[in-house]
Write the structure tokens for this entry.
Amino acid sequence: MRQDLLEEGKKLSFPERIELAEAIWDSVPRDATEDQLDVPESHRQILDQRLASEKKTPESGSDWPEVRDRLRRKL
């Protein structure tokens, strides 16, 4: 990593630093090739299992408002 860029970034305000980090993060999938974003086989297996489970019993999941409410109650 280029230290000069990091030092320049540290001069930004906290909100600007967050905005910069988000912009960099958002650019990764847009600019990367598929082989640079390789998903480990173990992650693929978990995703495949979850998709199969969802297809088998779609009613077992929760919609976003339910999940959001549960998370808010835990805070």
User: Anything to note?
Assistant: The chain has a mean pLDDT of 92. The radius of gyration is 19 Å. The first helix runs from residue 3 to 10.
